[in-house]
Amino acid sequence: MAVVKTRLTEQWGIRHPVLCAPMALIAGGRLVAAVSDAGGLGILGGGYAGALGGEPDLEKELALVRGRKFGVGFITWALERASQALEAALKHSPYCVFLSFGEPKPYAKRIHDAGAKVICQVQSLRHAEEALDAGADAIVAQGTEAGGHGANRSTLPLVPEIRDFLAKRAPKTLLLAAGGIADGRGLAAALMLGADGALVGTRFWASAEALTPQAMTDRAARATGDETVRTKAIDALRGVPWPQEFSFRVLKNKFTDEWAHRETEADAARGSLAKAYAQARAQQDLDMYLTVVGEATGLLHDRPSAASIIENMVAQAESLLKRGASLDFRASKVAS
Length: 336
Ligand SMILES: Cc1cc2nc3c(=O)[nH]c(=O)nc-3n(C[C@H](O)[C@H](O)[C@H](O)COP(=O)(O)O)c2cc1C
Hints:
The longest helix is centred in the last third of the chain and has 20 residues, at 306-325. It is built from 16 helices and eleven strands. Mean pLDDT is 95; it is low at 332-336. The chain has two domains: 7-211 and 302-325, Alpha-Beta Barrel (TIM Barrel), CATH 3.20.20; 224-292, no CATH class. The chain is globular and about 55 Å long. It has 336 residues and is of the alpha/beta class. Flavin mononucleotide (FMN) binds at residues 21-24, 26, 45, 47, 73, 75, 100, 121, 142, 145-148, 178-181, 199-202, 205, 292-294, 296.
């Protein structure tokens, strides 16, 4: 079996340096259990912590991961409205709690007191400072290629810049890369940039165990990476109160074709399409209801098990990293 050892695998006692992102509505207990059983670390998608309704029952999903090493993730600004979800999750003794999109400090001490590690996903150097102030055990540098919510910086320069920042300020803090990592080439690149591991969303979104509707993965499998768009307009129209600095990367559809680049107008019409959007979701009308993926959608052609995703990713990364050591890139064409 392929092995890529890093500080992350050694310190956190996991076999592979691969974490499954806490994708709202997608990373349920089945996927999280499958990732952890395969030697990665699964993080349950706690999403908006139930603050906006319409999410899977967290208790039910938590029951599916019993006995494993797992994490739970929340959208930080939503916890302000629903901190009881964090308390409920902590009762299940997660190994780590993943906070993204908002100020982590109000929650970090509570998480540490409960014996869990704090992972903060950041999109900028300012966020990295906030994560350190909160006492984060690990920082995930999320590039704009990522599926779902995020910001503007790209993975390639953001990861080494945060590595340099951590080297000066907090060398023991672990660093993971996120955004566009979907195979062994991405994992090897992340490690070469100075990350201790990778947080993977889109690739696990299209795994057998994910809660993703099949019609969505069929769409994504046909799409290239050119066919996603990052926009703030949709959250405004559906009335989800995201802070201004974050936007949403999704697969283009009729709805984004009409609105993605009309953000000022959408802001003025805030919430006006909330009902229509909820209806599109109920009917799985994918011309309006969003398929949430990153640019890595162009690398998805199938829906394998989480275990085989991890196995292939690590085997390919191991072979590339070994080959890299020879400094001979003349034959570096690799099948995906
Ligand atoms: C369908 C989907 C839902 C997501 N939901 C969340 C979420 O609820 N909370 C969060 O912190 N990140 C969320 N993300 C972003 C991931 O944490 C991660 O940054 C991203 O998936 C990494 O990039 P990749 O998609 O290219 O692998 C989501 C991503 C996707 C694709």
